[in-house]
Design brief:
Number of domains: 4
Strand content: 15-25%
Number of strands: 25
CATH superfamily of the largest domain: Nucleic acid-binding proteins
Structural class: alpha+beta
Shape: globular
Radius of gyration: 30 Å
Largest sheet: 6 strands, antiparallel
Number of helices: 13
């Protein structure tokens, strides 16, 4: 399996990263400098409101929009029966009690503003013991109060009117490890399922003797890594955490404490594997940043990074521009003649599988099964490329045999395994639908690149000229009840004006004779199909409000 990572930064406003596998585009990441990107950033914020009805708090963390912190995202160390206990704040940097070493290097995460009785109100609490979890979570109003300072991390960008989603479960990813300060133990990624690998990684981590009071989780990239490589990653993460602690102690909320790396470094860190034979970057400054990162973190693989200086644009050279253009199409053709149709709504994504001209030499049932297998693989690919999230409903071609239904479900499960977003797939419903959810972290690629059409407001449809003409005539009936209107102008699209002046000529003449109003219909070619503006004047030439 040959993989290549292509990084296009020729336009400074946009960075695009494509991951090719055997010449096929499998993953695409797009980020623009004009768009907010807060996911992964850590902030010291202040509670501005508590909503017991939804068990959530709203946090001002300094970006202009308050973040949403649900009770499920409040780390257990914040809990204390009867409310907060500032005196039991502990040092997340190395697990030692904050009171025993006040002012020492890497102290507890911060000193917040003092409340009325002079105590610090930073909402970090006692050191949790391994397995120490409250049986019942206390209400959020008993854990946090307005004015409390909290250490939060953005886990989901805001959508529409919703602010970013926050969590107090802090995690800082390295190349092979993830630092989770309050975890207090060593864990292994669930995606590493080989027991021998898990045992070896756990032994390496125990030999490294990580500081008490902080936790580490070994990432899938840590498989078959040496002890020295893991030690280097751990040292880097601990230095980073201590700098975060110092910054947190120095500044009061709201303030940004840690910013996630740019997309290039982030993608190389998270996506690079031994299967990636080459990384191509077409911009000198971005190439230098990536080179420095690789030489620091993965010096063994630094030679795989290459600067692309060809005359033909990088993505054109690999035929990606046409492929990216097809990503935004509603209909996706499949191998053999079938297709899938993807419709994105506010609440969910609907995907319909059509057989089209796809045929096999076997039965109709076998034909549907083979088509669905092809569609399942392409659905997983399109979800990654388009970065679609939320509830997804897949309408596969109906199959009667249970073994075929299970086979399609398995094919979809297998195809989704490489997806980094969390997914959950249900079994086929009685209606033949396969429902699933996919983690939504930021707006989909389509939402990031396109905006709703101001004419159709995102529906994809506008009223016909006939419908608009009828609407104009209905409104004129209202004018017939007014005695203060002597002259009336109606401005519409050219097609609507033509329809009224030709097919509604008799009704217009009858209206003018009956109510003694001079009517003038104006056609405007540049107007939208649903454009409709009335202007009215009385007999003295004064403007009258209508309708």
């Amino acid at each position: 399996m040959k993989q290549e990572m292509l990084i296009n930064v020729s336009q400074q406003e946009e960075c695009r990263i494509a991951i090719m596998e055997d010449g096929v585009l499998e993953e695409l990441y797009v980020e623009r400098t004009s768009q907010d990107n807060h996911v992964g950033n850590i902030y010291k914020g202040r509670i501005v409101n508590i909503e017991p009805s939804i068990q959530a708090a709203f946090v001002d963390f300094g970006v202009g929009r308050n973040g949403f912190l649900h009770i499920s995202d409040v780390e257990p160390q914040y809990y204390r029966q009867g409310g907060l206990d500032p005196d039991k704040a502990f040092d997340l940097a190395d697990g030692r009690d904050a009171g025993a070493k006040a002012g020492a290097e890497g102290g507890h995460p911060g000193e917040g503003d003092a409340d009325a009785d002079g105590r610090s109100r930073l909402a970090t609490r006692r050191k949790p013991r391994l397995g120490d979890r409250p049986r019942v979570k206390p209400p959020i109003q008993d854990i946090l109060r307005r004015g409390d300072e909290v250490l939060v991390q953005v886990i989901k960008e805001g959508f529409g009117t919703k602010g970013p989603t926050l969590s107090t479960y802090i995690s800082i990813p390295g190349r092979y490890l993830v630092l989770m300060p309050p975890l207090g133990r060593v864990g292994i990624s669930k995606k590493i399922d080989d027991e021998r690998d898990r045992r070896e990684l756990r032994d390496i981590m125990l030999d490294l003797k990580p500081p008490k009071g902080v936790g580490f989780v070994v990432r899938t990239a840590g498989t078959e890594r040496t002890k020295s490589e893991m030690a280097r990653d751990m040292a880097y993460l601990l230095r980073l955490w201590k700098s975060i602690v110092r910054r947190m102690r120095k500044y009061s909320a709201p303030i940004d404490i840690y910013q996630e790396s740019d997309m290039i470094i982030r993608t190389i860190r998270d996506m690079f594997t031994e299967d990636v034979g080459r990384i191509l970057i077409d911009e000198p400054a971005a190439y230098e940043r990536a080179r420095e990162f690789l030489e620091l973190v993965m010096p063994k693989y630094a030679p795989r990074l290459q600067f692309y200086d060809g005359k033909e644009p990088l993505f054109h050279r690999y035929g990606l521009e046409d492929e990216i253009g097809r990503i935004h199409q509603r209909k996706v053709p499949l191998k053999g003649g079938g297709s899938i149709v993807i419709d994105q709504t506010e609440a969910l994504v609907a995907i319909d599988v059509n057989s089209g001209s796809f045929r096999t030499e076997k039965s109709a049932e076998e034909n549907a099964y083979q088509m669905n297998l092809i569609a399942a693989k392409e659905i997983a690919r399109q979800l990654r490329l388009r970065d679609l999230g939320g509830v997804i409903v897949n309408d596969f071609i109906d199959m009667r045999k249970e073994k075929y239904r299970r086979g399609v479900e398995k094919a979809l499960h297998d195809a989704m395994k490489r997806d980094r977003a969390r997914t959950k797939i249900l079994r086929t419903s009685p209606f033949g639908l396969v429902e699933m959810t996919r983690q939504r972290i930021r707006p989909s690629l389509r939402k990031s690149i396109f905006r709703d059409c101001p004419t159709c407001t995102g529906t994809g449809m506008v009223k016909t000229a006939e419908s608009m003409a009828i609407e104009v005539m209905r409104t004129l009936q209202l004018a017939a009840t007014r005695t203060d209107i002597a002259r009336l102008n109606v401005t519409v699209h050219d097609e609507v004006a033509t329809w009224i002046n030709n097919r509604k000529r008799r009704e217009v003449a009858q209206f003018e004779d009956a109510v003694h109003v001079q009517l003038h219909v104006v056609g405007k070619e540049s107007a939208s199909p649903e454009h409709l503006v009335f202007e009215a004047w009385d007999s003295a030439g004064r403007t009258v409000r209508f309708p």
